[in-house]
Structures are given as structure tokens and as C-alpha cells.
Amino acid sequence: MKLSFINSQLTDPKLLKRLSSLVDDPQLLIPQKEEEFSKLLKFGLYPAEECQPFVTKQGTPFYNLDNMSVIPLHEEDRWMHYGDYRFRQIEVLYNMARIDSAEAHNWLKDNLFQQRVDSRKKTEYKAKFRPFHRQGWKQIQTEWMKYCLCLKYRDNSAFRKDLHSTAKLPVEDATGTNYTSNLFWGARLVEVDGRKYYFGCNVLGKLLAQLRDSNGTIPYQLPEDLHLFGKPIHAI
Predict the structure, then answer these.
(1) How far apart are CA 169 and CA 51, in angstroms?
(2) Cβ–Cβ < 8 Å for 126, 57
(3) Which domains, ranges and CATH numbers included, belong to the chain?
(4) Strand 169-172 relative to strand 51-54: parallel, antiparallel, unpaired?
(5) What is the residue-wise DSSP string for 167-194?
(6) pLDDT, tens digit, for every residue of 142-179?
(7) For the chain, percent helix, then strand, then coil, each to nearest 5?
(8) Contact 122/72 with Cβ under 8 angstroms?
(9) Is-contact 44 38, C-beta < 8 A?
């Protein structure tokens, strides 16, 4: 029943087309058996009572697990860092690698994008440096996310506290959103045969569980030509 539900959801050509902006072949996200639900790049149904949902809203439970969670502006001594680059949200570092340009990275730094994710600046950044969007981003995005989460674990004590305060599967709750990417990185609440589940790939949640179980040491593999500020990626 679970597999048939997932297949019925993923026969929607519009959904598959939107998922193709995230992965080369959305069909590969469809599990062939329930044992595959736990695989990183497979859709699944996760029993709601075994999940710890979180959303992008300050003051909500487990807010610090979200990539958009913000370290307070006045607590500069707690900001995360990449070399001498300081920032308040791991989403900033994650988005930097989408663009293959030292000029673009320095533009972000000069425009104080490290202080918070400003939607206007984010749009301007993407438009200004569109010709420099990294080729093969779909293939490396999850590996780069692993790197970013390891760095967040190293620098953000509030994140570590939230992560280790639950043994449940973290889930970025996409129930109230319309972004297809949220079904890839997170999952939405559904009901199947009278039982509540979270439905999605939940890639971020699975990575958070790995991070918790390994105490912040998820292995990652990045291409040698992935640079920030024109230099090779710093080891964590």
C-alpha cells in the first residue's frame, strides 16, 4: 500500500518535471521496495510518530535544525565561519557553491549577504552571475550539503543541542509549502490507511540523522575544482 501510494503521487508529470530541476532522472527517486525508504535519494513514507518535524520559523521547536535558522545579529561571537568569512545562516554557504566564480563569492561578502538570507540580494545574486552557475550542480548538491552540515555542527552550539535532544528522524516539514524542492529536502504530512506519515525524500532529515549518529563527521566527496573565493575548499 505504501509503495502504491508513492507511485500514485509520482505519476504526476508536472511533479516529475519540477523534480527534474533538482535531479537528472526523477524516476530514480522512486523506491522499488519499502527497505529503500531509508536510502538518501529515495522517496519514502515515514511514520509521523517516529519523526521530529521542524519549520523555518523562529521560536518553533527544533528551529535550529533548519538551514534558514538564524544566529542572532547581536551574538556575533557565535556566528559560523568559513576562513575569515562570517555568516549567520548555513543556507548562505550552501548557496555560494551554486556559482562558480570568485567574483560572485566576493560580491556576496561585500553586500553583507553573510548576515542573513535577504531574498532581494539572493535574486540579484542569481541574476547577476547566471552565466557562472556551476555545471553538474545536481550531482554535487547533496555532497556539498554534507559539508555545510558538518561545518554547522562544528560552529553552531544551538544546532548541536537541538540535534542531540531527539532520537527521532528529523523532517523539514513541507506540509504548508508549495516548493517542489521541499519534497526533496523534506517531506509533507499525509494519511495512508488511517495512519499519518511524512511523504518525501527527506534528504536533509536523513543527513541530519547521520550527522547526529556520527557526532558531526559525515564523509563527503567534492570535485577538485569546487572553489570558494577562488581557492580550494577548506577541510573541516
Answers:
(1) 5
(2) no
(3) 2-232 (1.10.357.40)
(4) parallel
(5) -SEEEEB-TT---THHHHHSBEEEEETT
(6) 999 999 999 999 999 999 999 999 999 999 999 988 77
(7) 45, 15, 40
(8) no
(9) yes
